[in-house]
Amino acid sequence: MESKYRSKLNGDTSLIIGILLLLIGVEGFVLYKVLSETWEISGNFFYLYVIFVGLLIGIETVGCLSVRQSIKNHMFEFKYYD
Fold first, then answer.
1. What is the C-alpha separation between 63 and 49, in angstroms, rounded?
2. Which of 15, 21, 46, 19 is nearest to 32 (CA)?
3. Transmembrane segments in this chain: where (predicted)?
């Protein structure tokens, strides 16, 4: 039973990583479009975009890791995978 739960946890982990990569990809695309259209204006403030996106990715990463940790902590308690 524990091996079944571990394999399901690995599946959830890959799903969480996929979600995180999708979020980062979309944010990168949006940042690229904004900067490419407004480079004359935003070129002077490029460091602010980098800081903002860095903080955004950091917050999302912490959130995804806390979701994984919560699933790991409670998977036996709530019979999550049954």
1. 21
2. 46
3. 12-34, 46-67
Token representation of residue 45? 């403030």
DSSP, res 38: S
Specify whether the CB–CB gap between 81 and 5 falls below 8 A: yes
Q: Residues 6 or more apart from 76 whose CB is under 8 A from it?
A: 5
Distance CA 9, CA 69 (A): 10
Residue appearing with tokens 């940042």: 31
Domain residues for the domain of 70 are: 1-81
CA angle 16, 13, 53 (to 5 degrees): 35
Q: How far is Cα 57 from Cα 46, in angstroms, rounded to an integer?
A: 17
Rounded CA-CA distance 56/35 in Å is 17
Mean pLDDT over 54-62 rounds to 94
45 versus 13: which is more confidently predicted?
A: 13
